[in-house]
Amino acid sequence: MAKALSLHNGVYLIIALALIIFPFVTESRTWTILLTQIFIFAILAMSYDLLLGYTGIVSFGHAMFFGIGAYSTGIFLKSFEPTLLYFILSIACGMVLAAIVSFFVGILTLRLKSHYFAMLTLALSGLFLVAAEKWRTLTYGNDGFTFRAPEIFQDRLVFYLVALGCLLASFVFLKRFVSSPMGRVLISLRENESRTASLGFKTLHYKVIASVAAGVIASLAGSLYAISLRFVNTSVMTMDITLDALLMTIIGGVGTLIGPILGAGVIELAQHYLSGLARENPIFERWIILFGILYILAVIFFPRGIAGGIQSLYLKLRGKKVGVHRSLKKRVVKS
């Protein structure tokens, strides 16, 4: 077990160092921007994995926390000087608002089970979307608004490193969170909530805590997304955002944390290259159909997601290796 953990940590460290070095060894602006988008959506997908993969909660309202972060940053930087201090304050404000909203949403909805909870979160998310559309004095409705980013982010390399740093910090935080005793309780909730309650745990409290943590991390992703575009409109609160997070989590591997990062990479790269093919050849104009086929193939060939498939292959190869060593040992003992 200790060897496996050290191997995983070593692989994570190598990947992190490679991503840090990458922009310094390539001059591709396209790849820098694309990887930055992947980092942002990976943070969102990891926050969703905390709900779906570790707590067993299917939420259709995750986009509202993403939108809260995006609007907080956009409104702050439009209303005040676009300095690094106000950017940090906007992230903090978005996180606090997301925590408050997710707390009350959790109290109201998490008493419900399965699809009833999912439908209510969808309704609440729709309520926030309508509020964003109608409160034009603050959000400018569907038209949205532009704003200036802090001068330091004019250099895409700096923003790339900031987004990567936020991704790594979120991953470490969530990894520690799910590995803690509280994380073990969340996993037991996912497996059998009634049995967990019979052991004396107040299941609602744990689910609300998971909901708050997921909402805060999603808000961080929203703030970074707003800065990357220098523009915010109601699209940040649409169902598409929640579905993207859901697809990234399922394709990458539910309940793994590293899986959503892989899923974000696959989906963002697929969207980039398929939409690029549509510009070059009219036959690919309906590229979203090809994207759907790609998703179907991923689910068929990787039912546990990419990370789950790799893990299964590793355990299978390791089991064969252990079996060979045992058979050789038996032969040596017999001889």
From TrEMBL:
Recorded GO CC terms: plasma membrane
Q: Which InterPro entries match?
A: ABC_transp_permease (IPR001851), LivM-like (IPR043428)
Q: What GO MF terms are annotated?
A: branched-chain amino acid transmembrane transporter activity
Task: State the annotated membrane topology for this chain.
Answer: Multi-pass membrane protein
Question: Which regions span the lipid bilayer?
Answer: 6-25, 32-51, 57-77, 84-108, 114-132, 157-174, 208-233, 245-267, 287-310
As for subcellular location, the record says:
Cell membrane
Name the keywords, alphabetized. Answer: Cell membrane, Membrane, Transmembrane, Transmembrane helix
What is the name of the protein in this document?
A: Leucine/isoleucine/valine transporter permease subunit
Which organism is this protein's natural source? Jeotgalibacillus campisalis
